[in-house]
Amino acid sequence: MLIESPPTVQLSVWVNSLKAVTSQRLRHEFLDWRGADGKAVLWCAVGRG
């Protein structure tokens, strides 16, 4: 991803904002991804063999 911004914008702040917006949109789009306690459940199991 290539972004262009003024030098006053901190990259870490921009990335955190992007992550927050992405998370909100995913939770809104996939409302049925709720655990037993009502919290969103997004996980990936990785096995070693």
Automatic annotation (TrEMBL):
Q: Specify the Transposase IS200-like domain's residue ranges.
A: 1-44
**A GO biological-process term:** DNA transposition
What domain of life does the native source organism fall in?
Answer: Bacteria
Offer an example of a GO molecular function term for this protein. Answer: DNA binding
SUPFAM superfamilies the UniProt entry points to: Transposase IS200-like
Pfam families named in the record: Y1_Tnp
Return the protein name. Answer: Transposase
Organism of provenance: Photorhabdus asymbiotica subsp. asymbiotica (strain ATCC 43949 / 3105-77)
